[in-house]
Structure formats: C-alpha cells, structure tokens
Amino acid sequence: MLTTTIYKKNIFELENYQFKILKPSTNKKLGKKVLKGKYKDYKFVTLTLVERETCPKDCIHWSDCYGNNMPFAHRISAKNQQLLEERIYNDLFNSSNQLLLIRLHILGDFFSVKYVKFWRKMLNTFDNIALYGYTANNIKSSIPLSKAIAKEIINLNKNDNCHIRFSNDLTASFSANSYDIVKPVKGVSIVCPVQENKTANCGTCGLCWNQKDQQIIFKTH
Question: Which helix (H) or strand (E) holds 104?
Fold first, then answer.
C-alpha cells in the first residue's frame, strides 16, 4: 500500500528549503486572483503538502490521487510541524499588505488537530487572509484522528473567512463530492462550472466559497 507520493524526489524538507511555501498561483484552472464576489481582488496563494503522508487512509482517492499526475509539484514535508507553522506564519507576516485567498491544500490534507487550530490562529491574527479548500477528513470516519480533525475543521469553518469543504460527505451541504459516486441533483448540488467550461477558472467562479447550501460535484481529475 502506498504511504506517500510516488514522486519522492519532489518532497522538500523545510530545513533545506529556501523558498516561500505559500506560493502565488500558477495554475490555469485556479487563476491568479479572484475577479468577483466576496473576495474580489484577493490573490490566490497555495500550499502543497505531501499526498498520503498527511491524508486520512480512508480517502476514496488514496490510490488514484491526482497527485499521481503532478510530477513537478514541490511537496512540503509536514514532519516538522513546528517549523512548518513558523514558515507559514513568516510568509503571511511578509505578505500582510496583500489580500490573500489561500488554497489549502493543492496536495495533502489537514494532518493534526493542532494544525487545524494553527490556521484558526492565523485567521484571527491576519485580517488580510481567507482560506478555502477540501478535506478528506470526516466526522463519521472510523479513524479517530480523522474524526477529531473533521470536528476541528467544523469549528474552523465558523470563521466567516474560512471555507473548507468535506470531500465525499454526501450528508453535508458544504461538501465537494466525486462524480464517480454521486450525480448532481437540482437545488442540492452543482457540477464544478470550471470543469464544465462554463467559466474560465476558480477566480471567475467562486462557488466553492460563496455557495454554502449546495454541494459541488467534481469530475475525476
């Protein structure tokens, strides 16, 4: 069973990493900044951790993670959690004059309760940031750690500037689900407009953080 990325040479330990770990978006589907809605003019920055190492083992995409198709991504190791949090804080402190929408996580996931609480602290510390993303942690998971992390993410989402959807939780309206396991239902869910070529990118869409009462359906990457 795989326990980490298949691209082990692209794992970077923070002790030797000289670059920012919160990176401006270069992803065409994400876009460079938000162009409409609540976070208009916020710049996208991204954080990429190591897939599988930081993910709950009951993630339905454990084996076919879209990270399998990302050989060049810089994966930041989370083994030294204290240093990871220090580096994130430093990047945020040095960007305090910019409006940032942080995409958590391009690869990887929330890996500890303490790490979720860290992001709550960052939201309370920096008034120029907002968070959005997805997690495979689930409040109904049989894995105690995943359940505990999901519970803390629910608390994190109580902040008006945090929008973390639960992946493949079909009972939650604020979820992001795979087209492989559920089809869209009018008034309940909607297929990602970017994947349907109905809008250019996430920055011109914004449903994932603006639409609280509808599930977002994603086609398999």
Answer: strand 100-104
User: C-alpha dihedral over 67, 189, 37, 33, to 10 degrees?
Assistant: 10
Q: With beta carbons less than 8 A apart as the criterion, state whether 175 and 138 touch.
A: no
Question: How far is residue 67 from each of residues 14, 36, 64, 216, measured CA to CA in Å?
Answer: 20, 29, 8, 20
Beta-sheet pairing, 23-24 with 43-47: antiparallel
pTM, to two decimals: 0.95
Strand partners, 75: 11
- Answer whether 218's CB lies under 8 Å from 192's CB: yes
| Distance set, CA 33 to CA 24, 122, 207 (Å) | 9, 20, 15
For helices 113-125 and 81-93, give the axis angle rounded to 10 degrees. Answer: 20
Q: What is the pLDDT of residues 184-219, one digit of tens each?
A: 688 788 999 999 999 999 999 999 998 888 899 998
Cα–Cα distance between 151 and 140 in angstroms, integer? 10
Distance CA 10, CA 186 (A): 41
Q: Is residue 44 within 8 Å of residue 24, measured between CB atoms?
A: yes
Place of tokens 């990325």: 5
- What Cα–Cα distance (Å) separates residue 113 from each residue in 124, 154, 184? 17, 12, 32
Contacts of 5 (CB under 8 A, 6+ apart): 11, 50, 51, 52, 53, 67, 75, 107
